[in-house]
Amino acid sequence: MPRTFDPKADADQTYDPRYQTSLAEWIEGRCWDFTITLATNDPAMAVRPGNDVAFDKLHRPIKGWDARMNRMMIGHRWADPKRRCDRLLLLLCLEKPHVNPHWHGVARICGDDPACIGERKQNFEWFSEARWKEVVRSGTVKITNFNRDDLWKFYLSKDLKCMRQLNCIIWPDQFLVGGDLPRERVDLVANTLPSR
């Protein structure tokens, strides 16, 4: 069953700053190449609270864009489990789902062959917006080089106030076929929840 996003239910959740801190530390502890914003610029994509398929609706465009980008960078066998280490690594956080859904995140270009990484990075910068427009016609993309010194990690974690809001994050490997919850999400929850 698709996950739901309901701000009223979120408001009832207990605020715990450890979620924000843990996500910021998780981002800081990994290597990233780019920061990225994927905007829909389409109020029609906004979801109403209480809609059971709302969260799934908001993930579909990201899943389509992720597939197109991986196919462009890796080739037609991009979905093969043996190519997992070559796939684009993304962490995206949903913002303003009820007005103008858009995602802010970080991306890492992966691969075993260092000679391919430079070309993939260039392709990522050049073709991200065109591939996004194939999925969301009104969409725009902003990409910058990741700078460990900036406050991006705090910006990404600013809306993560309770456990339920973890559903607003697209985790690395989330779209792999047959995958359960991404290990990163499980680890984040395990390291954040108070011990009992």
Question: What's a quick, concise take on this entry?
Answer:
This protein has 196 residues and is of the alpha+beta class. It has six helices and five strands. Helices cover 39% and strands 14% of the residues.
Features:
196 residues; alpha+beta; 5-stranded antiparallel beta sheet; 6 helices; 5 strands
User: How many DSSP-defined strands?
Assistant: 5
* N- to C-terminal distance: 29 Å
Mean pLDDT: 79
Biggest pleated-sheet summary: 5 strands, antiparallel
Lateral strand order in the biggest sheet: 4-1-3-2-5
Give the helix level as a range of percent.
25-40%
Count of helical stretches: 6
SSE pattern, N- to C-terminal: HHEHEEHEHEH
What structural category characterises the helix and strand content? alpha+beta
Q: Tell me the count of domains.
A: 1
Radius of gyration: 17 Å
**Poorly predicted regions:** 1-12
Principal-axes shape call: globular
- How much of the residues is beta strand, in percent? 5-15%
